[in-house]
Write a structure and sequence with these properties.
Elements (H helix, E strand, L loop, with lengths): L1 E14 L2 E14 L3 E5 L6 H8 L7 E6 L2 E2 L9 E4 L11 H11 L5 H11 L15 H13 L5 E5 L7 H16 L3 E5 L3 H7 L2 E6 L2 E7 H8 E9 L11 E4 L2 E7 L3 H9 L4 E9 L2 H10 L1
Parallel strand pairs: 3-8, 3-9, 6-7, 7-8
Antiparallel strand pairs: 1-2, 1-4, 4-5, 9-10, 11-13, 11-14, 12-13
Helix pairs in contact: 2-3, 2-4
Bound molecules: adenosine-5'-triphosphate and magnesium ion (MG).
The site of adenosine-5'-triphosphate has 13 residues, from β1, β2 and α1.
Length: 296
């Protein structure tokens, strides 16, 4: 079942004399229990789509639904945790104030207890009573994520959650996202950091010029990132197999082949006295594929 449905969104912005088509038929679903990555170049329409789902921007046409309720209905977001791109908060309040404010919007019981737990999880306990103006960019991201979790949401919508984070911060976020997902939270997030997407997503949408142009699940990603195979074999006699085998150590050889040549190579090896020891995929990165798709 889909938790979010985005159906044929169109959105045009006017900027001075220019008209900018930010969304041009954006459609996709976010299914219950998945971690869906939203990947696309700058200006592809990711934040605009997210803002329409959060009803911060209204579409010219098309509809977004959360749990079958139109996103223009505030009730649709009662179980949603949201973190915007580059979160900015009143900087005269403290981290604890922000969490309590977020809790009050959702009438959370035990707000103080929950806030302390989240501050601890995001390693911000000692900054609980420090004003946000004194927080670093990474700390703002962390308190923003904590605020999005205060009401134990079922759906998380995060716009570039790992944007300003160092590798340790990214690891904390990714682990938290994996843990939440294991406990049943559906996650939809945009990112430019392809290895992060590859790491944690069960599915990836690629968007360009205001619409989805491709989507991959984990198996597709495995398939697409594999461009060939390295077959390792052992042969006792020195007879040449004529398969372009290279000796890697005494008696052990490797044969590199393209994806569609694998069966043919295996058959040729099986018809010889050589034995296959291992077959390993040769990988290119999702980043290479992303660039290839965008240049198509
Ligand atoms: N309020 C606005 N007024 C005018 N143009 C806007 C507005 N918001 C977005 N745009 C334009 O709409 C297009 C899509 O922007 P959007 O922020 O959705 O892209 P994005 O995919 O999130 O990009 P990024 O990866 O840089 O965050 C861009 O050309 C942007 O300049
Ligand atoms: Mg954006």
């Amino acid at each position: 079942m889909e938790m979010i449905k985005v159906d044929n969104l169109h959105k045009t912005f006017k900027l001075k004399l220019k008209t900018i088509k930010a969304l041009n038929g954006m459609s996709f679903d976010v299914k219950r229990g998945e971690i869906l990555g939203f990947l696309g170049p700058n200006g592809a329409g990711k934040s605009t789509t997210i803002k329409i789902i959060m009803d911060l921007v209204r579409a010219d046409s098309g509809t977004a639904f959360i749990n079958s309720l139109k996103s223009t209905n505030p009730d649709s977001r009662l179980r949603v945790g949201f973190m915007p791109e580059n979160p900015q908060y009143y900087d005269t309040i403290t981290g604890m104030d922000l969490l309590k404010f977020a809790a009050s919007m959702f009438s959370v019981k035990d707000a103080g207890k929950k806030a302390h737990k989240l501050l601890d999880e995001f390693e911000l306990t000692e900054f609980a009573d420090v004003k946000l103006r004194k927080y670093s960019k990474g700390m703002i991201q962390r308190i923003g994520f904590a605020a999005a979790l205060i009401h134990d949401p079922d759906i998380l919508i995060l716009d570039e959650p790992m944007g300003g984070l160092d590798p340790v911060g990214r690891m904390i976020f990714k682990n938290k996202m994996k843990e939440l997902n294991k406990s049943g939270v559906t996650i939809f997030f945009s990112s430019h950091i392809i290895p992060d997407i590859e790491d944690i997503c069960s599915r990836v949408l690629i968007v360009k010029q205001g619409k989805t142009i491709k989507q991959f699940d984990r198996v597709d990603i495995q398939y697409l990132t594999t461009y060939g195979f390295n077959i390792i074999l052992r042969k006792e006699d020195e007879k040449n197999l004529n398969l372009n085998e290279n000796e890697i150590s005494k008696g052990l050889y490797s044969i590199k082949c393209k994806k569609d040549e694998l069966i043919e190579k295996i058959e040729a090896i099986e018809n010889s006295s050589a034995k296959i020891v291992d077959i390993e995929p040769l990988k290119k990165s999702l980043e290479d594929i992303f660039i290839e798709i965008l240049n198509d």
